[in-house]
């Protein structure tokens, strides 16, 4: 049986909780997190680019990339995925430095061997059923650039399943998929089960998080996401990919992250509970 591989968003195991934001780069101690990941039997760290450019993020310079490669190898971690939040604060469709930005980021991701590029399309780049055609050419361009480096494009969007299928058909690229975020796609009762079934062929990655109906990202198991239905669907579609925890840190980030894995493995082993 293939080993189930888990990772977590960079910073979630080492940075203290913040009332202002969940997603922020652990600039002072980012290297130590590789050691924490190994000691607690995680398989990868999902690196990320912030909403605002941060030159201290090692993903942007050659020295940092060398350190990432070295630390990942030393701690037996794979460099698997990268989540880009930059276009949450910048409109992808009109961004004037598009070519410069993607030349740089895709080259850097290739240097460390990233396999999946997650592109979050919210806020400034919020994609809806009324505007998604405006994104087609830019997403085709991104996917073509990624394909040259053998990287998949995983869109993180809130369109319904019907419009996701339509969007991917219009992009018409074999390396374009979606990441399914269990918290962002919170729906009542068994609707997430049905949605995952409908999106089966397009899902290449999962972000695991729990939310309540107020939209708060809460500790796994404390929210309203019905994980038992989600993992029944995952089992049904025979998903073989990896999972990233994009979770609330709780009071103790390391303990919370380890509890996350225990919680999810229990559901995977018995999704009918």
What are the main properties of this structure?
TIM Barrel; 273 residues; alpha/beta; 8 helices; two-stranded antiparallel sheet; 10 strands; eight-stranded parallel beta barrel
3D structure, described in words:
- This protein is of the alpha/beta class.
- It has a single domain (6-269), classed as Divalent-metal-dependent TIM barrel enzymes (TIM Barrel).
- 35% of the residues lie in helices and 16% in strands.
- It has helices at residues 32-39, 62-74, 98-111, 136-148, 161-171, 191-198, 227-237, 253-269, and strands spanning 6-9, 44-49, 81-84, 116-120, 152-156, 176-181, 203-208, 210-211, 217-218, 243-245.
- An eight-stranded parallel β-barrel has the order 1-2-3-4-5-6-7-10. Strands 8-9 form a two-stranded antiparallel sheet.
- Strand 3, helix 3 and strand 4 (116-120) form a beta-alpha-beta unit.
- The radius of gyration is 18 Å and the shape is globular.
- The two termini are 22 Å apart.
- The relative contact order is 0.13.
- The model has no long low-confidence stretch (mean pLDDT 94).
Helix content: 25-40%
Largest sheet: 8 strands, parallel, barrel
Rg on CA atoms, Å: 18 Å
CATH class: Alpha Beta
Q: Please state roughly what percent of the residues sit in beta strands, choosing from under 5%, 5-15%, 15-25%, 25-35%, 35-45% or over 45%.
A: 15-25%
Q: Please, how many helices? A: 8
Shape: globular
Across the major sheet, the strand order is 1-2-3-4-5-6-7-10
Name the CATH superfamily classification: Divalent-metal-dependent TIM barrel enzymes
Total beta strand runs: 10
């Amino acid at each position: 049986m293939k080993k189930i591989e888990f990772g977590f968003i960079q910073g979630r195991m080492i940075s203290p909780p913040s009332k202002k934001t969940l997603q922020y780069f652990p600039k002072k101690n980012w290297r130590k997190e590789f050691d924490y990941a190994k000691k607690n039997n995680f398989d990868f760290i999902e690196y990320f680019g912030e909403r605002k450019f941060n030159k201290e993020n090692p993903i942007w310079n050659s020295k940092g990339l060398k350190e990432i490669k070295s630390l990942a190898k030393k701690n037996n971690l794979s460099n698997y995925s990268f989540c880009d939040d930059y276009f949450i604060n910048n409109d992808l469709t009109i961004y004037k430095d598009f070519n410069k930005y993607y030349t740089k980021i895709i080259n850097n991701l290739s240097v460390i061997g990233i396999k999946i590029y997650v592109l979050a399309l919210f806020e400034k780049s919020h994609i809806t059923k009324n505007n998604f055609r405006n994104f087609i050419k830019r997403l085709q361009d991104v996917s073509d650039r990624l394909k040259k480096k053998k990287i998949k494009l995983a869109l993180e969007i809130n369109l319904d399943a019907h419009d996701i299928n339509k969007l991917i058909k219009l992009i018409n690229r074999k390396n374009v998929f979606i990441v399914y975020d269990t918290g962002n796609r919170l729906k009542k009762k068994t609707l997430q089960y049905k949605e995952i079934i409908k999106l089966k062929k397009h899902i290449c990655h999962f972000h695991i998080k729990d939310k309540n109906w107020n939209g708060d990202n809460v500790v796994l198991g404390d929210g309203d996401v019905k994980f038992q239905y989600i993992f029944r669907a995952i089992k049904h579609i025979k998903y073989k990919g990896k999972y990233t925890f994009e979770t609330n840190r709780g009071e103790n980030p390391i303990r919370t992250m380890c509890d996350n894995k225990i919680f999810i493995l229990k559901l995977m082993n018995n999704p009918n509970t």
